Amino acid sequence: MLDGIKRWLGGPPKADLPEYDSVAPWAESHQYGFRSVPHEGFVVDGRLGPTAWRLEWGPSQRPYIQGQELRLRSELGLGSELQLLVMNRRLAEKMEKDMFDQFVEGVQTRIDNQTPPEMRWLVMFPKLAGSEMGALKERWVALASQKPWLTQWLEGPLAAALGVLRIDEALPMVLMIGRGRLMLRTALPEAHVAQLQGWLRFFETAIREARRVANDNPDSMSPSQAPSVWHQSALPGSEREK
């Protein structure tokens, strides 16, 4: 009875909060949209000037990322033929080995659409040489369908941001442009606000630099955009990102 009185005086019991309970207040303080996906993660929507972006944290959608995955994406209205990829060197080496084992020594004879685009591009397009990568060559690999666009993108602020991005060499990180969309994927076991802020700052640098290069190369812009990407989350339970 005494315990019951204590509970009554203390008000209703607090519900167990997820480990990312501080994310919603952070999003609200920046006027971002926030939506929790029960038992999976959350979605945050925001803007960098006229450009919308989406941040998702949930179960991995890629075989090279185990556990929880952080995804950031933004529709830039670029042409669908523009395909660019930047990833950490250790991931590139492992992915190339996996592709070799799967398609050369294994029974599979062709790469189909079930293979993630970043894995297809890794064997389709030539990488930038070490002399072209400069100080980034020790930790990063970059390749593209349009090399001049990629080299312009990696100039200045984005190169500096990659240079100071302090992550474990074994941590998979992919930054890519395809189908007019900028996308970042990385492993993130726990979603702490400080980490989200750091990745968002990096992603916004990539957005700004992509817009700069697009302005210098107007022929790379697509005449139309695909806003349907914002209609629903790419978390499990809804349409997945390919």
List its salient traits:
alpha+beta; eight-stranded antiparallel sheet; 242 residues
The general outline is globular
Strand proportion, as a percent range, falls in 15-25%
What is the chain-wise order of helices and strands?
HHEEEEEHHHEHHEEH
The radius of gyration is 20 Å
Mean pLDDT: 83
Structural class of the helices, strands and pairings? alpha+beta
Strand order of the largest sheet: 1-2-3-4-8-7-5-6
Secondary-structure topology with pairs:
Layout: H1 2-9, H2 23-29, E1 33-37, E2 41-48, E3 51-59, E4 68-75, E5 84-88, H3 89-103, H4 117-124, H5 130-133, E6 140-144, H6 147-153, H7 157-163, E7 173-178, E8 181-187, H8 193-216
Helix pairs in contact: 7-8
Characterization of this structure:
The protein has one domain (18-218). Helices cover 33% and strands 22% of the residues. It has helices at residues 2-9, 23-29, 89-103, 117-124, 130-133, 147-153, 157-163, 193-216; strands at 33-37, 41-48, 51-59, 68-75, 84-88, 140-144, 173-178, 181-187. The chain is globular. The N and C termini lie far apart (57 Å).
